[in-house]
Structures
1.
Amino acid sequence: MGALPIPIQEGRTLPDYLPARMVNEFAYCPRLFFYEWVEGVFEESTDTVEGAIQHRRVDAKATALPEAAAPGEEPPQSIHARSVTLTSERLRVIAKMDLVELEGGTATPVDYKHGHPREGENGLELWPSDRAQVAVQGMILRENGYGCEEGIVYYRKTGQRVRVALDAALVAETEGLIQRSWSAAEVGEIPPPLVDSPKCPGCSLVGICLPDETLASGAVGLESEPQQLGLFETPRRKPVKREVRALVTPRNERRPLYLNSQGVRVGKSGAVLQVKDSRAVLQEVRIGEICQVSLMGNVQISTQAVQALCEAEVPICYFSMGGWFYGITTGLNQKNVFLRRSQFRLSDQEYFTRAIARRLVEGKIRNQRTLLQRNHIEPRRETLAGLKEMGERAERAGSLGELLGIEGNAARMYFGDFAGMIKPDEDEAATEFRFDLEGRNRRPPRDPVNAMLSLGYSLLAKDLTVACFAVGFDPYVGFYHQPRFGRPALALDLMEPFRPLIVDSAVLTAINTGMVTARDFVRVGGSVALTAAGRKGFFRAYELRMDTLATHPLFDYRVTYRRMLEIQARLLARVIEGEIGEYPVFTTR
């Protein structure tokens, strides 16, 4: 599956002015510039938060800059103007200057930075990106009639001011940067990642950019032996080995909040969520400490709480009392419309949907086989051989219909031996329920194991829907699962390889460690459901699995499964955007 350029220039509109801060970003990293200015993607880090606080202090003391003196007029003697915004029509740039020092007719922009200056051979210097930003400010001052001979950057960490002369060479260099910034934005193709750059580890967008992962996945070479190609196919590629730095933090320190008690209400007090019943406050959780909220059944949430969660970009997920995932509320964070346009276009291309579906189904079958090998007391050779054959057939499948048949055959083999991974429960003798599994059944589930599998798959669909929204996808437009009203098809696509690794493993953990026992189930008509205590125990098993560190087979670093879901969604976006040629499905050994 070859790289696909995205013709997204058509219909693209950009702001009238390029901010000076974005020239700084382009000089630092063109890819960072594209994410922040073109796609509107931004993530906070400690440095960005501290920098924003410091700039708010400067902006709070805003003072006006007097107009430039006309010829023959007496210029102002000494004025310090703060938080000054000016534009240049010629360069189409705008700058909000922290401080302008006006002495006579000469204006000097002073930019405040959180860090420290660069140590050069001849003393302290400005970093190239800071030099570009303060140069833009000086050029704007000149175009507005002020004299400007130099710019100053004040570095807060060391308390030092560093000057740079606004000479002809710097002006020409900066004008070139401005022009290249506009060109990159107008072309609409995301610049490639920096290669082994020391800038990446400290970047707030490293978990979105995935520089080393993108390069490792895209650094491909054709297999040496020629292959017969079908219509619209490209030769199968194999990755060229390159080192991948562990730039992504292994864990997201924020945690999901599950509200399972029927009749409780969720409100807000300041930056804290309060969970109440009719008598008292049951629980308080800081909004900044949670990554999502799941409401199970009859749980009410106030408008104020919804607004606060949307503002903090914390999704709210809604489930039926039985665990059916049926809705999500998110803030207005769906900015990457061009990714979704490409997603919609490629979802109608049979060659593309078939290539993605092959990888997903083959990965799922391989992970099912691995789980049996790891956990079954005595895995049958015919089952392992059959699953291996199904995985190989999935790689060669000629249609989505054929893949569905292969997936179904593999599922029958896998679930036929699933019971061999379950340890006997002492409570089974005292109840009507048994942790047996003769096969998969659902809607409704008719035994305890299937009840937990159904609930777990709903939770995983929820987590991958959240990941799709975070990346900028439409979760309802898939490649393997075809669109159906109300079904998050893309989330279901992405979850296929993770079903055995996350949900099936969590079910086995819940049973084999006693987190859920046979006493935690009730029969409702022809279906079997978990009690409130049983759901709580299963949520604990599921989240324990999501917080488990796993090694990515391609990148060879360890992150939690929750983090892995977002990484895989972002890698699929790289395929759709044409940066890498083949989706690197997650499998485990």
2.
Amino acid sequence: MSILLINIHYSIRLALILVLTLSFSAFSFSGQIELSNALPGSFGLRKSVVSMHEQRYSNLVRQQTDFSCGAAALATVLRYGYGLRVQEEDMLDGLFAVSDIDKVREQGFSLLNIKHYLERIGMRGRGYKVETDTLLNIKIPTIVLLDLKGYKHFVVLKKTEEDFVYLADPALGNKIMPKQKFMDSWNGIVFAVIGRGFNKNSILVNPRPQLTARALNNTFAPLSNAQLLDYGFRHSDLF
């Protein structure tokens, strides 16, 4: 009996150490932990761990300069909405080709610059003036401009709920912002990227897509004008 109790206590102690180790690792690093022989009866068990930092910046393109938030936001939409293998550098090269470089370095890119670049690669960009109460109806990721204490900053608006908005911020990562705080910073315009190959189950708007054969049948169809109405764009485009 005493030997059995010792074995039980030993197993419990190992289990507690394992739980604490995994909990700490989630905050400090990412990787794969080998658990074989750590517990009685385990057979090569592996545990993938993703750090909090990686989670914050997952599924978005980070900006590398103080003026490239627009380029990174566009790269985020093209990569995770359209499946294009693009980096921020690709967007910078393309946007500089249709922009005034000195003006960009001083003020950053504009939505008009982004629109002109998209036209060069066979896609379209449309800016819409959207009322607050229609944000809930928009079902595709869009690029929006926020005024953060005087600093103009492009982010990707992934989706809107009743009291919160979900953003992919090229500088600060994925975040959830109170809707009222967003409204106080937003200029009322959303910019939609339109082209072939849009994934309606994009992780930008659906973090855990549950795909079925029926859903996949029309997943990557191009967006039509009629579908844009269905996605919440019921106002005339601005440019």
3.
Amino acid sequence: MQRILLFSSSSFFFFSLALFLSVNQVSATSHPPTCASTTNVKDACKLVADKYPAVGYDFCVKTLKKSPSGDLHDLALVATRTAIAHAASAESEIEELINLETESAAKSSFDKCLDAYADAVERMRNAVDNIAARVYKKAEQQLGDATAAAKKCKAAFTDGNNKGALPAPAGSDYLKLANMARAIVVSLE
């Protein structure tokens, strides 16, 4: 029997709050656009879709359409903060699932998944700092490392004796968000 795990209302609230705060923080700290970096969301999403077809142009536009700026630098910050919010929400949901799980093998899988997302959040927060400082090469590397979280989480449920159902928040949207941020940062290098 396969379980389908959904975001709890508290996880959704925190994800929505983090997304709202990230968009507002970018608008408060946005830099004046330059000729080299001015673009719009649709142009940025074309870059993303070309670099990572699995992300998809429509997903990118839907994610970034409410961004207050079309500047690639600011879009990179919004995309990264959105990925952080998603990963942090996944962490919260996984913690709740660990507390509900009674089987030790499944708890072990959830623990490994939780560790992967905690590492990803830390790396992406460091990437935000580097994007803000315009150290794009380092930010791109950190975002690349952070994309491994979804793969590590999935492996925790498919490798060896690990059991349990892959948590819904650990699905493909996180990977799409992290790759979207990475593609925008790469375009800034």
